[in-house]
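DM from R.C. (forwarded with permission)

"hey, sorry to bug you on a friday — could you get me a structure for this? deadline for the figure draft is monday and I only need the backbone to look sensible"
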Amino acid sequence: MNIEYFETSRVFKIDTNSTSYIMAVCDREKFLGHVYYGQKISDSDVNYLLRLNENPFVPSLNSRDRGAFLDSFPTEFSGHNVGDYRESSIEVIDKNGNRGVSLFYKSHSIYKGKKKLYGLPSTFAPDDKCMTLEIHLEDDVLNLEVVLFYSIFEDSDAITRSVKVINKSDDTISLTKIMSVCVDMDDDNFQMLDLQGAWARERQIEYRSIGHGKQSIGSTRGESSHQENPFIGLCDQSISQDSGRIYGFHFIYSGNFIAQVEKNQFDMLRITMGIHPDNFSFELQKNEEFTAPEAVLVFSSEGLGKMTRTFHDLYRNHLIRSPYKNKKRPILINNWEATYFDFDSEKLISIAKEAKTHGIEMLVMDDGWFGKRNDDNSSLGDWQVNEDKLKGGLKNLVDRVNEIGLKFGIWFEPEMVSPDSDLYREHPDWAIAIQGRMPSRSRNQFVLDLSRKEVADYVYESVAKILRSANIEYVKWDMNRQLSDIGSSGLAPQRQGELMHRYVLAVYDLQERLITEFPDLLLENCSGGGGRFDPGMLYYSPQIWCSDDTDAIERLSIQEGTALLYPLSTMGAHVSDCPNHIVGRTTPFETRGNVALAGTFGYELDITKISNEDKNQISKQVEMYHKYNDLVREGDYYRIASYRENHYFDCYMVVSKDKKKALVTYVQVRNRANAHVRKIRLKGLDPQKKYTVEGMEKAYYGDTLLNAGIVVKNMRGDSQSTLIYIREVEG
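My reply, with the result:
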């Protein structure tokens, strides 16, 4: 790990263990150019890559066609409306209504450590384990300063980037666009990788070709969304898990975003990522500043798998802060799919008693415990216990569950309000809406305007009061609708464009307050399933509900896409009843358990009603969880095969950091006639260590298992699965 500035060549070189990122200050006007990003190289002065000698329109030599230079120069952070017709990184409106930004190098600093981003989630590390480069750019016409931050970590190949904009003029400036990343590079026949989806079908891996013009993903829904996760990759056409180049870009933010690849007439690519400019503006008065969210850049020359493991380790070591990040999570049972709104204290107690006999450790009470909430048409915002359902109150129920020997958790949807609620009748102006327009309802609810302090304080106290009242050790924080009708009665007309970003900042602040007052709380985020599954939320909660679709076969592709970027320990995964509530499929109980073991693990069913055959498997699954969870939570993830690709089976494994243990999960989704036994080659093992493999009599060296593989017998029927445990031979 090193960051260095070379005065003679005016080059910045950032080196991680395996990658180099190089920039240079060019020409007497001090343009900041992007020179190189990729596999680590020894040289620093590689400015020939900028091709300045080939360009006859370098401003110091020939200013008559300045626009031709600006339209092809690989700039590190692009301006706007000054001759570069590619995607801009920043846009403003000045006091005269003009729109133009041109940025030039001013100064820089290199230091150990990393600054926090005020009000935003961001990566962290001890000062002696990371380094940061700050580059200050300025537009002296606007008296505007832009600070680019680059940080690297001793134990990672990731580079994090963020941007700060400072208005140093006496006049107000309206910031209307700000990206966190801009990278220019030549197209080398790359393709684009992203994660698309929908409710109950989140984070599906998708490849697309890169044509001339712009191809982008994004969200304007007020959250990162089910539809498109804030990630893009640029990769070789022949990319695989183990070979090929990929550049991964991931945004640590939970609101509107855009990630874009633009290919211009010279076959150059510009990659930008940041807050989506739609419905965005931010007023900056004299000396005010705006901090853009952080983005993570990862380059791998060893395929998707190396990129994946880099993201996993970065997030486990430098983003997740919860005391649970290095602990087993309690095995929980949630009553949602068991009862929906139809429950009372005695029903919950009966579930808790049966769950305890099988080794389950926590009961979570989901939607329906407050106000007059007997369906999803009322009471959001009225966070008072419904004692018609919970006889004797919440504390009485929690105490009884604790006496049985289970922990207790509870569901909230704090950001929402029902039109049929005491809160909305008293404060209709607290809902986000455009004055004079009929607001759009979704799930018959509105979104509270958390940009207003009094609203955010009400929400916080509503949640905190409940948590103070009883021994509640887990909260599921849900958000079941996206934002629309963007308007705030608490913001001035010229500041309405700030609402969406201020909303996200308020959510972050609420959750920060929550985990500060309740430091031992296990917080799980959720948004209609996986609609806000992004790195920003991991800063506050160590796990996120992966999807409302708990069907084991559907979960294979959902969890494959999620695990491309996110550690297995962050994926909320439960065993649910069959036929599945979303897709109607019936899958063996064993397979449902094996698939859920790749996440946080729990149950989403009425344990008092399932068959004895299924009940009897729970104790075995609980035992497996305790045996394997440390490995699953902390180990390196390797994808062996994808049901999404081959349409027959799925296979992945986790290997301990010391390479002494591994767990292979194999799911045969479909059977076929006259099928032969299947051979799979393992990954991640030490070639020189000798291992025992469950189901095999002899021990074998790692190089045999890596290159020759093991045999998995064909299983009769569909949706069969097996776990294969591998251990180093002692001595």
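R.C.: lifesaver. The first strand starts at residue 2 and ends at 6.
me: no worries. Residues 332-630 form a domain with the TIM Barrel fold (CATH 3.20.20.70).
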